[in-house]
Amino acid sequence: MLELLQTYTPWLLVGQYPSGPIGGLALTLFLAVTGLVCAFPLSVLVGIARSSESRWARAPAFVIVHIVRGLPVLMLIFWCYYVIPLLFGRSVPGIATLIAALIFYEMAFLGEVVRAGIQAIPKGQIEAARSLGLSRTRCMLDIVLPQALFNMIPSILSQFINLIKNTSLGYIISVEELTYFGHQINSTVLTRPMEVFLMVAAFYFVVCFSLARLVGWTERHVRRRRGNLIAQGGEQ
Amino acid sequence: MEIHLLELLQGYYLQLFIAGTAMTLRLFFASLFSGFALAVLLTALRATGIPVLRWVIAAFVEYHRNVPALVQIFVWYFGVSQLFPAAIRNWMNAQNGEFLFAYIALGLNVAAYMSEDLRSGLRSIARTQMEAARALGLNFTQAMRDVMLPQALRVASPPLVSQSLGLFKATSLAMAIGVAELTYSARLVDSDTFRTFEAFAIVSVIYLVGSWSIAGLGYLLESRLRRAGSQ
Fold it and tell me: Which of A35, A213, B75, B102 is most solvent-facing, going by the fewest CB within 10 Å?
């Protein structure tokens, strides 16, 4: 196990870099971060639409969220694999396909998180802001969203962990991320699949487990902040 | 682009989709029931407070929560399978080994998640109920089985439903080791006919029917439990 680790850790960490494209865990993290960053603004829009009073905003967001959440991520990836080249008129690399699928997926899941965050803001605050003369938009941007997003930090982090785990599906469309290199190593070594895949699992574990601790820490932090606000006379 | 849905909804291709759906459902229900039973057992064992048990189960849960399900399936299919003697390995390959390993991996995965939900359900039940049950002369097993777990189950039912939905979608991962389930059939029909849109659309609709049924059942269950709880 140790000499396997010694020999193949570079592959698992960065793929064939610097002699080839960057891959392995570095690519896995890149995919997850890109997916989260791109999905975030979309999910805020979805969340606002989902909690809107207008039926015309609610209905399409409802349909999108329920379709995306009802399908396996793998089917989303296959759909992107098929639809994106049709839209652009040429084939796109697997990495782009995977990122697009992850954005769709995360837009729906994070959108629900945003919705829950918005709905958790006490109605009285919105009424107060409106009666002070703030427009609906200003009220959303200045009063509701900043608080909702702050309270959502732990959930966003959990979604990030989820996203990291979902990048492993890239293996199926030959994106050279961590799981893919696990397979490469397995077919190079041939005789020790158990150790190779446990090694891959350990890499994911270290990243996701540490992030999960961070989620717990931020959860406590957010709760404390909210507790202080309430103690200072904010209504709940 | 012309769309010919009906072409794929007859004869050989229809049979592939039906077989794929049946396989997805088999994998789903097998993993769901075994996983749920194991989750209940793990929760009860963890509640005993015996340190070694608690650590082992905590490690089990953390492994399954922090490693992608696909990698867990690979560990079983490529890794654990090699640890068996050749005779058993051959027998398993003859007996649809892919299905068996996908079932084990997904069952253990969902068991880990569900045991966490049950554990937080259990924590929401007042400790004094356990003490009261013990004081009335029930032993630990009886108190757990008849007093604590049924209540924890009620509290935990919404997250348990969403874990079931997650499991239903996760069965698609089994295609990566060659289980001929629904996603696999979509790929097969696609590469056979080049009718990608139709093949994916049919399979997506089947998944959506499945997912929405689970979500709908969960909703019904929740409103019934709420009514039962308020009486």
Answer: A213
